[in-house]
Amino acid sequence: MENHVALTACIAEAQPLRYTPAGLPALDLKLEHGSRQQEAGTEREVKVVVKAVAFGALAERLSRQAIGSLWTFQGFLATPRHGKGLVFHIQDIQQNSFSRG
Question: Taking the model in full, what pTM does it have?
Fold first, then answer.
């Protein structure tokens, strides 16, 4: 089975860099995406805010990025241990050339 997500989004919010009990850097973020998508033969406007987390060197790198900067994120979805909903676990990022205005 596959669990792979690719999402182009802006960093809407980033918590301060934290460390796991094992000493691994971790960063909790909120990502914002807006686009127009085709569905059932019609175009619709899509807006979503996604909870995300990054670990290790990637967390350190993302902690230095500007709020509002646009990236393509790749990773997987998981349910948090002590919660409901989904969290996007970021495994790779690529900066886009445009930021939201």
Answer: 0.89
